Amino acid sequence: MTVKQGERLDDLLGRPGKIIQSDDVFSFSLDAVLLAEFVWVPIQKGNLVDLCAGTGAIPLFLSYRTKGSVTGIEIQPRLVDMANRSIAVNRLEHRLQIIEGDVKEAATRLGHARYDVVTCNPPYFLANETSLRNQNEHHTIARHEVLCTLEDCIQSASQLVKPGGKVAFVHRPERLLDIVTLMRTYRIEPKRMQLVYPKAGRAANTLLIEGSKDGKAGLTILPPLIVYEDDDTYTKTMRDILDA
Fold first, then answer.
1. Coil, helix or strand for 60?
2. Do 179 and 154 contact (CB within 8 A), yes or no?
3. Backbone φ and ψ of 226, nearest 5°
4. What confidence tens digit (pLDDT) does each residue in 186-209 have?
5. Minimal CA–CA distance to 119: which of 28, 193, 58?
6. Pfam families, from UniProt (predicted)?
7. Backbone angles phi, psi at 234, to 5 degrees
8. Is the pTM of the predicted complex or chain greater than 0.85?
């Protein structure tokens, strides 16, 4: 059965594919679209890993930019099942797979220094931010550092990626210094960064950052990305991303 009770088959934003989602678990957001579009990818071939893969949105979006193979790792078995059924719906089993596993053990499972690209949309909130905790276990694990921390994700990405390979994260701007410090601790040199703003004149609410394993110092700050016009329609830049 493709879609089980309590699930629905949703469109992939701006893409012809479909994804299985449910109100019972954490659904993908615009962050997944932005990260999949931001990260450098090999076009014709290559091996990519997506950590904290959830229901597989980032691997699905990446499949439109690369002909390489994408492996997602996700600790929640229900999400793994949903992701692999979504992959089957889109007939991408030959290039995409989601495996059940702990981010902290990803390199042991998948191999050290074997991958061209690692992406990650990690939990944004610290485990002790109890005021933001959601009573739904699936939502809590996806949003809070209860099963893996930012450091776990960055260390794992460093172990998986080849020298010179790319590692990209989407996170909150307030964690920028933590992210840069940890990336350099684990030999990932920040190379590209972009801040995302909900509207012009508002504070940035999303950070996109990409680094290179054992890369040389030198960070490029890309132009700001503004998501919505004042009338709540997408900006031209955002429409171009969604229509890519």
1. helix
2. yes
3. -105, 130
4. 999 999 999 999 999 999 999 999
5. 58
6. MTS
7. -65, 145
8. yes
